Each structure stands twice: as structure tokens, then as C-alpha cells.
Amino acid sequence: MLTLIEGAQIHSPAPLGQQDLLVTDGRIAWMGKGLTVPADWPLTRVDAGGRYLVPGLVDPLAHITGGGGEGGFGFRTPELSAREALAAGVTTLVAALGTDSLTRSPAQVLGKVREFRAAGVSAFMYTGSYHLPVKTLTGTVESDIMLIPEVLGVGEVAISDHRSSAPTHDELARLASEARVAGLLSGKSGVSFFHLGDGRGALAPLRALRDGTDIPLRQLYPTHCNRNPWLFAEAIEWGRAGGWVDLTTSSFPDLLDDGERLAADALVALLAAGVPVDRISFSSDANASLPRFDGEGRLIELRCGQIGSLWQEVVAACGKGVALETALAVVTANPARALGLASKGTLGVGQDADLLLIDPDRFAIERVMSGGRWRT
User: Fold this and answer.
1) Out of 82-91, 265-274, 284-293, least confident range
2) Which of 16, 43, 218, 315 is 20 to 30 A from 148 (CA-CA)?
3) Domain count, the chain
4) Is 38 found in the same domain as 63?
5) Is 161 a catalytic residue?
6) Is 54 in contact with 262 (CB distance < 8 Å)?
């Protein structure tokens, strides 16, 4: 079956003007104007009517098996469904474990990832969790990355957080090196994805890896960089030096009162400070626990991350004067590049047909295509 989307304003994420786009076999087969199609072709035509056609969103962090538990078993957050992800425009995501790697496991994450794939979401995962030693599927980080197609790297490893396992420099260096080499041997990113907490150490553990090892900077992918003022200040310098800066889109008023920045506001500030746009990404932290602790580390409250926040913060960024091309890049091309997913995050011939039709007046997601099939 062929699908011809006609009269769309294409953003790849760069604006390409009004064009038509042909989809076949799950990929973009042609882009341009005036395609002549034989009458006997099995073709479905879709009139975009000037709507924006943009890449499906790429989310570097989603807790699809749920998270939480910092206040006890009654505080566990629920699983995410593929239907929820697709409705939010997310066609590609990477799943992770968080604080709890005992009652939740990498095997559960892998099973859920494959459930998402069966439903049309290009789902991947990190091996491991917050803690070291790393919980794996096959016994080592290297073999997980090399032998399991869905495993892209290791994460979400916690640093500068009282919930971490207080990893040493040598432990982090060895972990990132193992992931890096396994990525090289398997043709994957082999990225090390780091959870940053509210500890005063902030990015110091990653700076030590940058300055004291031969690990390429692009292998180190820190998230939650907008969670407090001191971490954000360090993230500006980290980004200026060429490091990845991932901003969490899920937030709540109480967290903002504690010093967190909305991802849209943080994006504006990073760009104003001279951080290259191609170093910045957004992630939803969907279905993670978003806890607040008092000064002695006692839980005050806990909320659940929302996958819909990813697109909401894109819209918010545009409302603050960020160009659509830039706002789209941080949820499409940039995370796809960080994760080594070359066929994701952009619209072009040969790319995966993961597409969103957007109402240009309301900036609302109207239709979602993944793998060449309409899902919503």
C-alpha cells in the first residue's frame, strides 16, 4: 500500500515549504511536487490542506514499566501504554528503569519494549538502572548492547543524588567505556545516560570523565539538567563545551517553586547563553516518579511524569519566540542523533515514515503515522 500526503508544509525539522510526500514499505519514498501515479497503483491520498508535516517525536527517556516507590509500595507509578505514547506524538522512545531495579527488572522493560513495537512504536531501552553494579539481561553491559537489538546503551545511572549508589569515578569510567566499546562493535550509540539529582556535585562526575578519560564527550548524556539552578548553570558550560544537555519536560508548580525551570524556559536560556541548539534535547520522563524531598531527604510528595509534556513544551517554546525549526529539533533530530538512530528524527527520502500532521493554528497534533501506518 502507498500513501501520498499532498499539500503539506513540511518541516524536516528545517522548513522545506509545501510539498507532497509518498510513503511505501514503512519509509519515505519520495518528496516533491507533481508526482504522476498510475491509476492501477494501490494508493491512498491524504489531503494535508496546508497542515504542518513534522517528524514523529523521539523521547530519550520514558519509564514505560512505571517507576517510583520512594514513599513505599503505595507510591509506585503506573505503566505507560503504547496508545498513550502515540497519542502524544511519540513514535520513538527509549525505556529505562529508575530507583527500583528489584521489583522491576530489565527483563520486564524488554518485554514492554517489544509490546510497544508490536503496537507501532519504535521502542528501545537502556540496560541498567540508577544503581551500580548494573542489573543486566545477559550478565554484562557489553553483551546486552551487542546481543540484544533493542538495547542502545546503559542508563538511567544516577549521579549527584541521594538515591544513587554513590558510584566512584573509576566505576563510572569503566561503565562508560564498556558501553562505548560495545556500541562500536554493534553499530549502536553505546551511550551512557545519566540521571542528575539535586546533589551539589551536579555535573562534576561527568566533567571528571571528560577531563580524566579518553571517552568521547558525545557518549555522556545527562538528563534533568533543568531541575535546579546550580545544575542548570553547570549545564550551560557543559553545553558550550559540546556536551549533551537534556531537559525534562514533565514538571509541576511545586517543583518550579523549588527552583526547577520549565523545559521551554530552559531552552530559551540555553540558546541565549550560546549553547548550540544541536546539543540540546527534551525528554518526557514519562511515568517516572517526580518526588519532592525535604532538607533531610524525607519524601514530601510524589507525582507522575507525563508523556504529553514533550509536545506541550515544544508549543510553549514557540510561544516564547523559539523558531519552530529549533523547537522541533530538540524533540526529533537532536535526540535521534544522540541515540544513534539515523533513520529517525528527520523527514527525507529513505527515512522511516514516522510523521505528525499538525494544525498550524492550534499547534495541535491531528494525526500520527509510525512505520508508514496511521495510528491516530
Assistant:
1) 284-293
2) 218
3) 2
4) no
5) no
6) no
